[in-house]
């Protein structure tokens, strides 16, 4: 954090390098990312189900849209709560800085919410033709809405752990994981066996890919930069977040992967639902650890 002071005699600007005290992004941002993943993820999964299993998904249009609206508003609420000056949020729209990921993300999220309400209207009116036609651009917009937080994190140039390519992939995988898990719970008995298997495959593969990426960073990250090596010490050995990190990996990824295989073997919808619940809960833990540990390292 830079502290500026203007000397009266010379009008010179003196910049002092001051360490940032404490964490800038608290658990509010974790809820932000977690809720957004569910809000966009269910839209991705509804689109998939309507293409592959239209008979199973035909009665899920309205309920899925409502769930998406709820979680996107949770995301927006916690975004607003985390702002240092929440009541000046309107400046983002009337005095925008297009080089800021926050500005671009706010505009995209606002348009996304508007389209979601239009989808809900079509679903309520049971106008499936218009709903399905509008769903395509909504899905396309959901992609950058999902990813923009990765751009915001990558703009924190002092945080070497948050890199745009890996964080973008993790945002998409989080949306697929939480979206498929939420649809398994939301669909319930409305989904036939094939639709449940499809969602189970998406959930399992998303969990596997996310776990592999975290392990790659965990093992090979210290070779990339000394800062990353120092940050990862917080989740190794007696680090303050070691237990939480591994709890998150097991609850979000490893246990659900095992349960999905067990569910496919025994054709059990109950086991699949348990995997979905654990994945959603564990995702919050994983996101929180990854958000907090780079902020524990004192730096400017």
From TrEMBL:
Transmembrane segments annotated in the record for this chain: 33-50, 62-81, 101-122, 134-153, 168-187, 199-221, 241-262, 274-293
Keyword annotations: Cell membrane, Membrane, Transmembrane, Transmembrane helix
Xref: Pfam families: NrfD
InterPro entries, per the entry: Electron_transfer_protein, NrfD-like
Top-level taxon in the UniProt lineage: Bacteria
Keyword Glycoprotein included in the entry's annotation: no
GO cellular component assignments: plasma membrane
Membrane topology reported for the UniProt record: Multi-pass membrane protein
Subcellular location: Cell membrane
PANTHER family linked to this entry: PROTEIN NRFD
Family: Belongs to the NrfD family.
Official protein name in the record: Polysulfide reductase
Source organism: Sulfurimonas lithotrophica
